[in-house]
Predict the structure.
Amino acid sequence: MNNKYILKSAVATMSLLVVACSDGDTTDGKVSSSASSTVVNGQADESNVSALALYTMDCGVIDISDLDSFSTIGDYKGVRDVFSDSCHLIRHPKGDLLWDVGLPEAMKADEPVVNGVYTITVKKTVTEQLAEINLTPDDIEYLSVSHNHFDHTGQPEAAGDALWLVHENEYQAMFGNEQTAAQFARFKDFKRKEFTGDYDVFGDGSVKILELPGHTPGHTALLVNLPESGPVMLSGDLFHRKESRELRRVPRFNTDEPQTHISMDKFDEMAKALGARVVIQHEPDDVNALPKFPKSLN
Ligand SMILES: [Zn+2]
């Protein structure tokens, strides 16, 4: 979703949680390709994971009274919709991956947070949901976010000291200037593996981060090849709604509209070729059709 309108309040609320990092050049968590495979944290739970599984967490609900900014051609003006905000845990015998970390914990409140056209409800943190399956942030080996918008990057603390897998163009978008760098200070604490192209998380083809730029410079989606259910593709924000996928609507705030169309075609061609189940992460119909946490899709 568009963080342009909510960014100010998000930064304000997030500043309550994080201490701005002013010495970013004294340490650099980037790890080389050869080193990344040796980074293993929190091993205690791994013996329990015998096969790949996909968990879907509720990371908030975003009620939007006017979707105008979600289509460049003006046909969403005055249209209301309710977006889900999904986060996912992918459990693999070689480690646990968090895919997207939702809205900021500071937005968890008894009453929804209202900002302009957005009414945001956060009921549970990622860490609270992990606890329901006896995991803590220290058990997470890998973190990746589809892109840098605040409804996908709100709770990095849920990933403990995981290795952050980030497209190099997205890293540049986050840390290329001081204002955004301060917003993402907590991400500086992670060791990270930067990549271009697609990235095979566990080296066996079962979980792949897909390079699909346009919404942001290094936007990515996720392909999970489940042993029983087959391939599932998590969209990130390449698409926001089922209808906008079909009609190829592009938000006004995307960084590159032509590139977005190329990415949309690439995603759909891959989904068709694989016979994949597509999950648009802001589409409640798609998210609610997945097993309800703590159940998993296997
Ligand atoms: Zn979003």
Notes: The first strand starts at residue 53 and ends at 64. Residues 1, 149, 151-152, 237, 282 surround zinc ion (CB under 6 Å).
